[in-house]
Amino acid sequence: MEPLFWPKASLPVRNLRRQLKHGQLFWREVGRGQTVVFLHGSWHDGDQWSNVLSQLGQQYHCLAPDLMGFGESQRLKDKSAYSIAMQVNTLAELLESLRLDSVVLVGQSLGAWVAARYALSHPEQVKALCVLEPEGLSYDPKRWQQARWLISPLAGLWLAVAKLFTRKPKPGRVPTWLQNTRLRQLFKRYPVACRLLFQRRRKVLEPEIVGTQLASLSMPMAVLQGEGAGEISQQLTQLFTMAAPGAVVKVLPGNDELPSYEADAIAKFLRHWIS
Question: Residues 95, 22: one domain?
Fold first, then answer.
């Protein structure tokens, strides 16, 4: 039950930067108390969590960084330097510089992969782990075949030709070429996510997979999923719970991309789960 005296006014969110080993990292920060670190999804930056931060800032010390190469954090000149391990080490460096020795990690998609790998590397520091649509649970190259093709130069030419020869679609239907064009534009806006998810060789990517190691974690774990989640989101939830049988599954209103559309439901769950 929500306390009747809980203040409704939200605290101002501070925008901060710090020079770390791999470059300058940008993050949002608000509140005091138990630290909760929010890690954004593949096709976002830390602003994805802004509405959740504004709701939890009265109870908790909340941080939402832009992972290195995303948002306002620095882009690396050497693209081969991007890895999940690099993101984990950068987060560890930030938390050490802020003298934070106890954190709750919340991550969506790519951010969930980083959060899980961080929990495996620093189990004594992570009080709890909450994920949404978690990536990095298994090596599944077939899933990303279309994405790899869409960001290739040949795909741009093919889509332009397809546009010319596609008949006018029926009302309410989006032609395939337009769907793929929009996906290609999204991927182009997030080159680091593309590299981390499906543009690295198997021998480089596989050691960073977390699925086989999650059972070793003893902290409380939760998986959030929208009641109307798509097939891939449901599969990712199932993979996580199979790898971490002790994880709690909480179904919330909404479909996919919960942080962007269901901040109220996420904040309410976290408020009770953390406390």
Answer: yes
- Predicted TM-score (pTM) above 0.70: yes
Domain-located, residue 46:
yes
- Report which secondary-structure segment, H or E, holds 261: helix 258-261
Q: In which domain, by residue range, is 217 found?
A: 14-138+209-274
Whether residue 132 lies inside any domain: the answer is: yes
pLDDT digits (tens, 9 = 90+) for 44-92: 999 999 999 999 999 999 999 999 999 999 999 999 999 999 999 999 9
Tell me which long-range contacts 251-256 makes (C-beta under 8 A, separation of at least 24): 251/225, 251/226, 251/227, 252/224, 252/225, 252/226, 252/227, 253/226, 253/227, 254/226, 254/227, 254/228, 255/226, 255/227, 255/228, 255/229, 255/230, 256/133, 256/226, 256/229, 256/230
Q: Are 110 and 193 in contact (CB under 8 A)?
A: yes
Angle at 152 between CA 146 and CA 158, to 5 degrees: 80
Q: What's the distance, CA 179 to chain centroid?
A: 23
Same-domain status, 106 and 191: no
